[in-house]
């Protein structure tokens, strides 16, 4: 039995110390979150996936270029501060916004089990990404929300074993998902505060 969330790095397993959020573990967990959109199964979410992947790549490129200065997300941002182009800082900022959108959408779904995903994602979009988007992008996201699969189908996919073994119980899925989302929410909140207080927003 290995439902999707057990096959990827959990945000609950991302080390967070006084020095900050572990960069590599965070990126690995973020890549796992991107796969959630495959389970949603709609090409309408391709733009979201592409955006997340692109921003993960920007942060990873910075880490690869200066690993000793990028062990944590906070160190990475601080060490890029004096440079003319702060590609990773901007990429991480947008990555956090995308993660926040996904996190809040799934938290909405967990809280209101009688609500369809299209409603959960729309509510999340309203309070996360919408204010940063122009008219065209808002239209793209609006289409994506409408293309959300039925709640029951999505949760069935979350419970399914990618290796075709027995599916997990819904209780196990809910427990894992809640843990995963709580840790993600904590990291996003921490990093948003860091960006605000350090005046790192671009």
UniProtKB/TrEMBL annotation:
Classification lineage: Eukaryota, Fungi, Dikarya, Basidiomycota, Agaricomycotina
InterPro entries cross-referenced by the UniProt entry: GLTP_sf (IPR036497), Glycolipid_transfer_prot_dom (IPR014830)
SUPFAM superfamilies in the record: Glycolipid transfer protein, GLTP
GO cellular component: cytosol; membrane
Organism: Armillaria borealis
Keywords: Transport
A molecular function (GO) term: ceramide 1-phosphate transfer activity
Name of the featured protein: Glycolipid transfer protein
PANTHER family per the UniProt record, alphabetical: GLYCOLIPID TRANSFER PROTEIN-RELATED (PTHR10219), PLECKSTRIN HOMOLOGY DOMAIN-CONTAINING FAMILY A MEMBER 8 (PTHR10219:SF25)
Domain Glycolipid transfer protein: 21-159
